[in-house]
Hints:
- By secondary structure, this protein is of the alpha/beta class.
- It has a five-stranded mixed sheet with strand order 2-7-6-5-4, with helices on both faces. Strands 1-3 form a two-stranded antiparallel ribbon.
- Helix 3 runs parallel beside helix 4.
- The radius of gyration is 12 Å and the shape is globular.
Amino acid sequence: MMTVKDIVEELELKVCSGKQGLNREIEGGYTSDLLSDVMGNADENHIWVTLQTHKNIMAIASLKELAAVVLVKGYEPEVDAAEQSNLEGIPILSSEKEAFELTGKLYELIKKK
């Protein structure tokens, strides 16, 4: 079983908000910056890789019951997104890596478990 905390440690991600959700299990992932695409294709307990930082990412994460959201290129969530993340217990993480590299690393980690 791979948890959000495992991913944070393995990939040295920054936890921006939603720390109470670090023990959520990750069953897969999805990479997209188009909210409607994520809404239509991501699955429960997936980790979502995006560069979107606004509050609407949390609406999608909550609706789809995602395990976590990872922002790329060092981006951090806007204040209202972080507040919603804390309320929902869905972590928003940040990586200095860009989406292509991060997605590959996540895929390898999740596939191993």
